[in-house]
Amino acid sequence: MLDPFFPPEPFLQQLVTPLCNALHLYSLPLHIHEILAVFILYHVIFEYLSPLFSGFFLEKQYTGLSRESKLRWNMHCVSMVQSVGISLLALWVMAMDTERQSMNHEERMWGYTGSAGMVQAFATGYFLFDLTVMIRCLDVFGIGMLTHAASCIVTYTLGFRPVFNYYGCVFMLYEMSTPFLNIHWFFDKLGMTGTKAQLYNGIALVSVFFSCRLVWGAYSSFNIYRDVWNAIHFDASATRLSTNDSMMMYGRDRSLPMWLIIIYMGGHVILQLLNVFWLGKMIAAIRKRFTPEAQAERKQK
Q1: So where does this one cross the membrane (predicted)?
Q2: What local confidence, expressed as pLDDT, does residue 169 receive?
Q3: How far apart are CA 93 and CA 111, in angstroms?
């Protein structure tokens, strides 16, 4: 399936192609405009739209926040747009891209479709924005968030070799739990801590997080581990398994270097462990807001 987004300007594509070829990122020039467009969009939301609309519609709540809380508020606004948009886009591509659906093992590893590349580019644009904010506001977000942003931008950029293009949409479905996390945070800042709305949102958050990140994540990780194992034993000199030349036209490097395996596989293992840890922290945080002691304390205020 072709990329439904408008094509890049020839000048921009030609400008970045030599560097991308040198870095073995052969499909990146096709999506450089999408990365830049998403980066600019989220920067505008973070710097201008979120402060403007939040200050207008929630003047009392927003203007009373500290500098740190305002930065976090604006970041949650960007995160809300990103998580909803990329989840819907990934689901749409998975449902509509018949070429992607028909991929065999070789194509899942080194193949490419324009629509899946678009999802990958939109995610890369967000993580590029995320990285710049983490660097600028390191005192607020901390070294942990900076490390997370850096690892994400490296992982998704390397996908433009292309490698694991098929799995870009798959792991973007992790973001389906993020809107509920953002809403939970907004409830606290809007004085709605301990309300029934926050309770129902908390139940939805834990349910979707468990389903998307632990169940779906474990299943998808197993699939990519299996594909990597088969790829390690794949004979590149043998007759190609792929029957679709258009999907493989950018897959010039039918290889899987050990450093790439370590980055991807190590990242997935760490992320799955973090998902278990975060789930426990979420459950504890939600329960804390609804203990009898917390309810009594809020009534006294």
Answers
A1: 35-58, 78-97, 109-128, 140-158, 164-187, 199-219, 256-279
A2: 95
A3: 15
Whether 3 maps to a domain, the answer reads no
5 domain-assigned: no
Q: Quick check: is 99 in a domain?
A: yes
C-beta separation of 125 from 5 below 8 A:
no
Number of domains, the chain: 1
Nearest to 165 by CA among 20, 27, 8: 27
Residues of 267-284 as b/e, b for ≥16 C-beta within 10 angstroms?
Answer: ebeebeeebeeebeebee
**How many Cα atoms sit within 13 Å of 257 on the Cβ side?**
7
Print the domain residue range for 88. 10-300
Residues 27 and 226: their CA atoms lie apart, in Å, by 24
CA distance 142 to 138: 5
Please, what is the average pLDDT of the chain? 89
Residue 242 forms part of a structural domain: yes
